[in-house]
Write a structure and sequence with these properties.
The chain is an alpha+beta fold. Helices cover 45% and strands 26% of the residues. It has 14 helices and twelve strands. A seven-stranded antiparallel sheet has the order 1-2-3-4-7-6-5, with helices on both faces.
Amino acid sequence: MDGLILEPLKYYNSVARQKHESLIQEHFDSLVARSGINVEENKKTVAAYDNVQQHIDELNKIINRRRTCFGLLIALGIIGIVLFLVGINFLPGGEIRKGVMMLCIGIVAAVVGFVVAFVVVRPRIKAAKFKKAESMGESQKLYEQALGQMASLNALYDDTDTLKIIEKVMPEIKFDRAYSNEREEELREDFDYVSFTGNETSIINTLSGKIFGNPFIFERYLIHQMGTCTYHGTLVISWTERYRDSDGRMRTRVRTQTLHASVVKPKPYYSIKTHLGFGSVAAPDLTFTRGESDTDELSERQMQRRIRRGEKKLQEKARDALENGESFQEMANSEFDVLFDATDRDHEVQFRLMYTPLAQKNTLDLLRSKDGYGDDFNFYKLKRYNIIKSVHAQNWDMDISTSRYVTHSVELSRKKFLDFNATFFKSIFFDFAPLMAVPAYQDEPTYSLKDPKPYKSYYPPYEHESLANKIGESVFAHERSGTNAILKTSILEQNDGVDRVVVTAYSYATENRVDFVPVLGGDGDIHNVPVPWVEYIPVSKQSDMMVKALNHTSREFSHKSGGSMPENGAYFHGMLAYAPASKQAWEQINETFKKYI
């Protein structure tokens, strides 16, 4: 293990980032070499395509300008007709001079407007459209030519590339091909695994493995929460009232008023969350939480002010703890104690064994640095299980699908490949960084010898749910569903490496309703104000889904399948899943999977 890993920020800046950048560039260059594509020929084709596209953009601008001119000329012609008619009306009234002037101006405007519009501008619009159509045809041919030139390279991308490159940069990390029953059992039995999933959540994606011999799992999940929504409605009323004017006479007038009303009704809300879970036997009895802050955004003066205020709070908390027989004690390093802010810790000895002076320094470096993501992480230590929920991970593109690299241009593909992999590595590294900052977390655990448990299914529920979500909510949702669907799975039976799974989709049908809310109007009467709202009615549907691990990479699967896929199917994490339209016997199921093995 490289000693610099004990200083994660320094390790990233001086070693890991440059090594990763070098490896992804080398890997892309090796793919280009293996593909045998003619890079220079592709560049020329792409340059020609770009020039045609630029010409099309210019033609679009010309067409839009000429359409505007055509519209203005038509408007001028219409104005001319109006002036002509006004001039005719003036003649019988004796205003001959004015009428003749109007007639002349109207005739000229109408003739100029319509003649120029239809004789000059309209043909030019048609000519520009014709040129655009020719250019679009040429553009399509060049695009298909460039795509053909890239075909052999586009076929070489593999979904394992991203993870294999990271493993070369940091041999301490080993990724799983898929989340397995064995990994789940390890986390649950040996590391107090805390599940965030339940009836209100559905797993979208996972990424698991080991770092320093300790298991980890990134989880992305869809969450359903029931809340409320305030709906508003209005009603315009009017009435006649009598009043006395300034002269003392009685008069009547019409008054109007807009009445407002609102109702509060239940409404489901959905959000996507991502976090990293990490198992370690370091400080096995300790729990604490710390929340993200704006430490990295503070000036030095603001930082010192925060630390001074925090020191006073820590002293007060320590005095209260002493009086109440609690264990809390201040750290000697008050800067760390204030900025890390894990004051709900419940085991002072283990907290200090965990946060040695080096661990404190490393953590402060992360909190204050602008090189990574700064102080953007929430840290929950729950005995042997640790959760990192960072702000940046919520926007992290976790899907390592290679479709994003498939383009018509070698340079565009290169940019996409380099940018995605650099961002992917940075996001993962700085989720691990708060853990790597603690040297004790880099010790490999000692496992107790346990007999393996029999598993109810070949693959864990997390992978079942991920595959169901990959196939898509629309396949499983109730036909009346008008919202997102939470997909939950349960194993029905297993046979010859295949899990038959029941997918239950929980969602809501929507019905438009109207409540009438009584409101007192300015006329002294009560009026029922209509307030439209939406009623969300729970609905659910159950469907079968078949799952089998093929353990092909995405490139291998594409080659073996010939680009085909079972209807309502998905290939994800080396596993193939599909939702049959009707009940299938095991013979049919096995025949389906044989096509892709």
